[in-house]
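A common beginner's mistake is to predict each chain separately and then try to dock the pieces by hand. The better habit, illustrated here, is to supply every component at once so that their relative placement is modeled jointly.
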Amino acid sequence: DAGVTQSPTHLIKTRGQHVTLRCSPISGHKSVSWYQQVLGQGPQFIFQYYEKEERGRGNFPDRFSARQFPNYSSELNVNALLLGDSALYLCASTVSSGGYTGELFFGEGSRLTVL
Amino acid sequence: QKEVEQDPGPLSVPEGAIVSLNCTYSNSAFQYFMWYRQYSRKGPELLMYTYSSGNKEDGRFTAQVDKSSKYISLFIRDSQPSDSATYLCAMKTSYDKVIFGPGTSLSVIP
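With all components supplied together, the output reads:
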């Protein structure tokens, strides 16, 4: 069975540009979460979506947005990129939303470098 | 005070050693406690999870949760070079997001 797939795996952008990251969850999983992991730190929660609705949002500016599609795949968009947005962006899927035990299944991540 | 704290290491041990990894936390509402392992340039993978206080064992790995002290531990017995990775503790309340610690980098030297 395919795991969580993310694209692109690596990308380089310049300050002020926009980026779109994509995620396909494990088949049968309806919830997708996005995390940002800066080098040397743990993942920081950005968004959670379940059944196309936002179920949680972390402490990130409005430059960050996301959506979930009917097939449960998801996009993370970041506008007006800053140098500090350079990080590994991780997508994780779970079967359900509220009440789950925290067993997140992560993809390999999209490594974003902002120059 | 951060919600979840973890000694970042790096921790270097000889092959076969017993490894102890620890986290402390401040939110008494956390009920689910997890350890994730992350190899270099990979996504984290779930290693162990525990509900509430107590111990859980899985092969060479043992997870302990002490809610009264707000302290969780992961023990690795007979450590192997393949255990070299970053270990992230994580926790959550019943219906909230998963909060991760900063991770401890472990190297097991052959």
